[in-house]
Amino acid sequence: MRIFIVIILFLISAPAFAQLKKPQITGNVIEDTKVNLGIKPANEAPTLTGDPIADLHNAIKKGGAKLIVHLKQQYALASSLGSDGTAVDPIAAPCAKALVPIVDLVINGPKPATIPAGDSMVLTTDEQTIALNTSEPDGPIVAIEKIRILRRAIQSDSLNTACGPLVQDEVKQAKNLMGGITSLITGAGVLAPIGL
Fold first, then answer.
1. Is the residue at 5 inside a domain?
2. φ, ψ dihedrals at 87, nearest 5°
3. Does residue 80 contact residue 87 with C-beta atoms inside 8 Å?
4. Domain that holds residue 97
5. Is residue 83 assigned to a domain?
6. 28 exposed, middle or buried (CB, 10 Å; 0-12, 13-18, 19+)?
7. What's the pLDDT score for residue 40?
8. What percent of the chain has pLDDT over 90?
9. Backbone φ and ψ of 81, nearest 5°
10. How many domains would you assign to the chain?
């Protein structure tokens, strides 16, 4: 019975949460469908260069920039104050804030580092010329180090601390939903032979 009440409340309140947009109707069915479904026109589609690594990087960079904006919007919503003066969603806000630098790291890679003067590893003028040549791909050692930096950032305690409660909350909600669905199916199976 409780699951029915929850489902009914969800269905009643769903339109209040939805931001409805009037569909485009111009007479061109194909273009209207693309716009209404959010499918990008061909002129906005990513262009492929033939270099799969560069194409993948460009796609990640373009999509990642939008993801950062969406994470910041999520943070703004989750950290906004409710009528009681506390954050509306104190579980999701820290996770969104912790994910932004990780996504930035995936998109843009680690920030360029400089070696302090006097260190024996300072690049010579010729080495700096080679290092600044962006047409050359990173060497395997540099690529491996960038992957290590990303892995360490993803496995950091700060990210786990910020997103752990959100993951646990979502798992709990999924278990509750699945338990309700299982009860509903089991109940329907028991009542069906009776004719109810």
1. no
2. -60, 140
3. yes
4. 54-112+137-168
5. yes
6. exposed
7. 61
8. 5
9. -85, 135
10. 1
Q: What is the dihedral angle through the alpha carbons of 59, 170, 92, 156, rounded to the nearest 10 degrees?
A: -70
* Token digits of residue 118: 């006097």
Query: Is 24 inside any structural domain?
Result: no
Q: Is residue 153 part of a domain?
A: yes
**Residues 6 or more apart in contact with residue 80 via CB below 8 angstroms:** 87, 88
pLDDT of 45 above 70:
no
Mean pLDDT (the chain, rounded): 76
Residue 72's pLDDT band (boundaries 50, 70, 90)? Answer: very high
What whole-number distance in Å separates Cα of residue 92 and Cα of residue 98? Answer: 10
Beta bridge partners of 123: none
DSSP string for residues in the chain: -HHHHHHHHHHHHHHHH----PPP-SS-HHHHHHHHHTPPPGGGSPPP-S-HHHHHHHHHHHHHHHHHHHHHHHHHHHHSB-TTSSBS-TTHHHHHHHHHHHHHHHHH-SPP--PPTT-TTPPPHHHHHHHT-TTSPPPHHHHHHHHHHHHHHHT-HHHHHHHHHHHHHHHHHHHHHHHHHHHHHHHHHHHTTTT-
